[in-house]
Amino acid sequence: MEKLIITAAICGAEVTKEQNPAVPYTVSEIVREAKSAYDAGAAIVHLHVRKDDGTPTQSRERFRECIDAIKREIPDVILIPSTGGAVGMSAEERLQPTELFPEMATLDCGTCNFGDEIFDNTMPMMRIFGKRMLENHIKPEYECFEMGHLDTILNMAKKGEVPGAPMQFNFVLGVPGCTPATVGNLDWMVRQIPAGSTWTVTGIGRAAFPMAAAGIIMGGNVRVGFEDNLYLSRGVLAKSNGELVDKVVRLARELGREIADPAEARRILGLA
């Protein structure tokens, strides 16, 4: 079994300081949280950016500022900028970080209910995103919130509309309105992916650590962070993303998985 790649989703677009004061908004806060996660064992930082007041933005220049600042502190970390942005943003807005030619970026694999809102990812929009990543030589992390999303993206890859093998999937389970976070659902999704693919599981809210444990045991990878869950345990707010990553590291050690550093993660993901 390969070493475990841990991704830290450090701020997302929706969570706020009112929910947890440690949620980062400013560039310096984002660097602080990225470094806390890296120091705890994360090889990857999944990056959304905010204005200083916390408003989500997909501004290319804000991404550039945050990426440059993170790389000065932790130059070998793998950064996966979000092209999901926030609900209601246009494709043009969402694609701005791809203009910086990151080694990876997210690609959302279909429209879905997202709590009380609709996260819009139409087929034409997904083709635009796929074309951009092909042109800019960016490896996508395919974000699957629903079982049908997986079939959709596999068919697009067969047609050459998005980058193909080796593919990296992130199964985001437990979003209200989407596929529930159960081991059975995760197992079904993992069984559908092509040989040679890699995968990560993200459990939302209270599902964060049960899904992490399942991913560790099943030979996949794990994402945690303030974007997905603000709590270290029931009723106990995490003080940093590093605390959340550290809990995954402890679980992995108890279950016999070693932790991948960024160089090892690049090899496993086919980046190196």
Overview of this protein structure:
The chain has 272 residues and is an alpha/beta fold. The protein has a single domain, classed as TIM Barrel (Alpha-Beta Barrel), CATH 3.20.20.70. The protein is built from 9 helices and 14 strands. The protein has helices at 27-40, 60-73, 91-94, 123-135, 147-158, 183-192, 208-218, 241-254, 262-269, and strands spanning 6-9, 44-47, 49-50, 56-57, 78-81, 104-108, 112-114, 117-119, 139-144, 168-173, 198-203, 221-224, 231-233, 236-237. Strands 5-2-1-12-11-10-9-6 form an 8-stranded parallel β-sheet, with helices on both faces. A two-stranded antiparallel ribbon has the order 3-4. β10 (168-173), α6 and β11 form a beta-alpha-beta unit. The mean pLDDT is 97.
Short description:
This protein has 272 residues and is α/β, with parallel strands linked by helices.
Structural class: alpha/beta
- Alpha carbon gap, first and last residue: 19 Å
Radius of gyration: 17 Å
CATH topology: TIM Barrel
Which shape, going by the Cα principal axes?
A: globular
**Largest beta sheet, briefly?**
8 strands, parallel
Would you identify the CATH H-level superfamily? Aldolase class I
Order of helices and strands: EHEEEHEHEEEHEHEHEHEEEHH
Indicate how many domains the architecture comprises. 1
Q: Which range best describes the helical content: under 10%, 10-25%, 25-40%, 40-55%, 55-70% or over 70%?
A: 25-40%
The top-level CATH class is Alpha Beta
Query: Which strand order does the major sheet show?
Result: 5-2-1-12-11-10-9-6
Percent of residues in beta strands: 15-25%
The appropriate CATH architecture is: Alpha-Beta Barrel
Q: How many separate helices?
A: 9
Task: Summarize model confidence as the mean pLDDT.
Answer: 97
The unreliable regions are none
Give the tally of β-strands: 14
